[in-house]
């Protein structure tokens, strides 16, 4: 991290194969920021998130995410970058054949945790943060959709990330549950972890006004309106 800067893209061009998706992207996200990312289907939101989590390289310009230089990111560093990012994506759901605790331990093992006592404590710690300490031994299907999404957020917090990237985190939830999830993400940002949320849910953006960036016509616009 350079000072309070978590994400810093300067004049970056983002390609999907030969197709220029977004050009001259300037984006700064600092510690504790809460940012909405909007834009029509196909406008480049996922491509922008992919650049930030090291899944898509940048061709021109310079970019940093959590202290890693994105234009020169060797493949071996990608897992280390990912540990500094908490990912809450719809296609990255809980393993349905394991308890909540086992789901959390699975991710910890995969990211290098070894000490069983520390792992058990951390699992309880993150569940406490999302208000679900009592669900440790439950199976995912025993939880509501909103509770499952809270566990996904707890899982994203395991390695104490500098930023949470969330792609449509309220996509499958009713309005009231959606508000609870966004309130939780807001609280997380207030405790110092930046949060970047891609969404089409304008109702929720109106309910929680915050900085909005928008992918439109091949550009990323700052201080955008819905
Ligand atoms: N793997 C890929 N190969 C080639 N082109 C791609 C690939 N992924 C996305 N694209 C193209 O890049 C552009 C931006 O897509 P992207 O998925 O970033 O948009 P999006 O704003 O996230 O859309 P949505 O809201 O539907 O998720 C689109 O024109 C899409 O067709």
From TrEMBL:
GO annotation, biological process: cell division
Domain ABC transporter: 7-226
UniProt-listed Gene3D superfamilies: P-loop containing nucleotide triphosphate hydrolases (3.40.50.300)
Cell cycle recorded as keyword: yes
InterPro entries linked to this entry: AAA+_ATPase, ABC_transporter-like_ATP-bd, ABC_transporter-like_CS, ABC_transpr_LolD-like, P-loop_NTPase
MF annotations from Gene Ontology: ATP binding
Keywords, sorted A to Z: ATP-binding, Cell cycle, Cell division, Nucleotide-binding
SUPFAM superfamilies for this protein: P-loop containing nucleoside triphosphate hydrolases
PANTHER family according to UniProt: CELL DIVISION ATP-BINDING PROTEIN FTSE (PTHR24220:SF470), IMPORT ATP-BINDING PROTEIN (PTHR24220)
Protein name: Cell division transport system ATP-binding protein
UniProt organism field: Mucilaginibacter pocheonensis
């Amino acid at each position: 991290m350079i000072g309070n800067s978590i994400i810093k893209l300067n004049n970056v061009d983002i390609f999907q194969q030969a197709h220029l998706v977004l050009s001259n992207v300037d984006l700064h996200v600092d510690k504790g920021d809460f940012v909405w990312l909007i834009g029509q289907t196909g406008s480049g939101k996922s491509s922008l998130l992919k650049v930030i989590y090291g899944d898509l390289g940048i061709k021109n310009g310079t970019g940093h995410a959590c202290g890693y230089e994105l234009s020169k990111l060797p493949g071996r560093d990608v897992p280390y970058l990912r540990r500094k990012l908490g990912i809450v994506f719809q296609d990255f759901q809980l393993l349905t054949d394991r308890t909540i605790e086992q789901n959390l331990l699975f991710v910890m093992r995969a990211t290098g945790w070894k000490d069983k006592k520390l792992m058990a404590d951390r699992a309880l710690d993150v569940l406490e943060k999302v208000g679900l300490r009592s669900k440790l031994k439950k199976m995912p299907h025993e939880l509501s959709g909103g509770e499952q999404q809270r566990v996904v957020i707890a899982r994203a917090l395991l390695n104490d990330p500098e930023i949470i990237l969330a792609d449509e985190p309220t996509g499958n939830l009713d309005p009231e549950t959606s508000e609870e999830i966004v309130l939780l993400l807001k609280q997380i940002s207030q405790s110092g972890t930046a949060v970047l949320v891609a969404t089409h849910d304008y109702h929720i953006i109106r309910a929680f006004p915050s900085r909005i960036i928008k992918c439109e016509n091949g550009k990323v616009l700052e201080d955008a309106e819905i």
